[in-house]
Amino acid sequence: MSVELLETIKQQINQLSAEEAGQLAQYLHERSGANGATTTNSPDAARREEKRRLRAAWLKEHRAAYAGLYVALDGDRLLGTGQNYPEACAAAQQAGVKDAYVDFVYPADYVGDIGGW
Amino acid sequence: MGYPMNFSRLMTYDAGRTGILIDVTLSLAEGSVTLPTKLDTGATNCVFTRCGGEDLGIAIESGEPVHINTAVGSFVAYHHDVTLTVLDFVFDVRVCFAADGFFNRNVLGRRGFLDRVNLGLVDYEGKLYLSKYGEAE
User: Fold this and answer.
1) B108 has which bridge partners?
2) For residue B61, what is the DSSP state?
3) pTM metric for this prediction
4) Which stretches does DSSP call E strand in chain B?
5) Contact criterion met (CB below 8 Å) for B63 and B56
6) To the nearest whole angstrom, how far is the Cα of A39 from the nearest Cα of chain B?
7) In A2-109, which residue ranges form alpha helices assigned H by DSSP?
8) Is the confidence at residue A35, as pLDDT, over 50?
């Protein structure tokens, strides 16, 4: 596909309503499944895996210190913390990192709940 | 006084089924798996079947164990870091995979999903409105 055609499609997508954009997203999602696209070997996927490895090591080392908080990480670099997702996201934004990992640090004695059962 | 909200996505689901089912794709570098998953606002976590994790190539017991209570008891699951995709929203999150192979459902709960989206529901019409938290409207 040419770059021009791709840009034209992107411009057309920007004109869609929320409902139409949702239908398109659903279609693309189903289409990728129908094509059996189950492997991801892109450079982006490799970058994600490297960051995943770095933050896993960071989380393992610092779990006790940040348990119960949301942390924003860029690989193994702590960008900030928060009591909730928006606060930690704001810390990441302040640090100038757009694709920061933001998630809850589970205490060692954490017990989850599925209340609807 | 009204409380208007805007959402960037609308998906439809079959309101006649027993749950609000959403296709969720979990991925790692090695591959991905798409699982029909129930939206559950009463669940603290996103929990998936052991089979779903194993299909991704995850050694389930290598993760951090977590106990999850239900109305009739508890079960053990293990945390693993995956990329979770709903529609075209992509999140790197820790989700749980049940240790017991008999756990036969996938659940989208608060940590890892509901804590980072804006969600609206019109169940009668089978409509689910969604935006990523902080997404420009």
Assistant:
1) B39
2) G
3) 0.80
4) 9-12, 21-28, 31-39, 47-48, 64-70, 73-86, 89-98, 107-108, 117-122, 127-132
5) no
6) 4
7) 3-14, 18-34, 43-66, 85-94
8) no
Q: How confident is the model at residue A2 (pLDDT cuts 50, 70, 90)?
A: low
Q: Hey, what are B90's tokens? A: 């992509």
B74: pLDDT strictly greater than 80: yes
Residue among B47, B68, B81, B89 with most chain A CBs within 10 A, to mutate: B81
List the single best residue of B70, B90, B100 to mutate versus A (max A Cβ within 10 A): B70
Which of chain B's residues have a Cβ under 8 Å away from the Cβ of A26?
11, 87
Give the pair of three-digit tokens for residue B130.
């969604």
Q: Which residue in chain A is spatially nearest to B43 when comparing CA positions?
A: A114
Which tokens sit at A25?
């997203």
Asked if residues A112 and B40 have their Cβ atoms less than 8 Å apart, the reply is: no
